Amino acid sequence: MKATITGRLGPREIQTLRGIARGQTLAEIAHDMRVTKDSVRSYLRDVRTKLGVLTREDAVRVGRHLGYITEGCPTCGRGPNELTAAHDTVDGLAPDVLHHAIRVLARRDPEWWRSQLDRMDRMTHTANQQIALGARP
């Protein structure tokens, strides 16, 4: 399939395209954008027209190729290996930054990540046992 690009996407169209790429429904995208579902449907139609494609899947594929959609964290959109100085410590991180830091660390060192998950499971199990015995964790 060869796409004929007829125009640049506007901010709302890009936001809609990124929502589709994340697997969101039109209703979810509308809620995030604080617009109606019909508006999102219109943005999506404009995206497909401007990118010269017929399906959502093709729009996402062309959008990635053109740089409208970047690979990386589906929550925050940061690159797959992108950490900032804020990721150096967990204390006081916003949930989306913490989420991203966890994803990056898991990708960089899967063995370390598995060991951390095992450690958290053991800690949770121990705390649950202490609670069952009436002790404070």
UniProtKB/TrEMBL annotation:
Alphabetized InterPro entries for the sequence: Sig_transdc_resp-reg_C-effctor, Tscrpt_reg_LuxR_C, WH-like_DNA-bd_sf
SUPFAM superfamilies for this protein: C-terminal effector domain of the bipartite response regulators (SSF46894)
Domain named HTH luxR-type: residues: 6-63
Listed GO biological process terms: regulation of DNA-templated transcription
Molecular function via GO: DNA binding
Protein name in UniProt: Regulatory protein, luxR family
Source organism of the structure: Actinacidiphila rubida
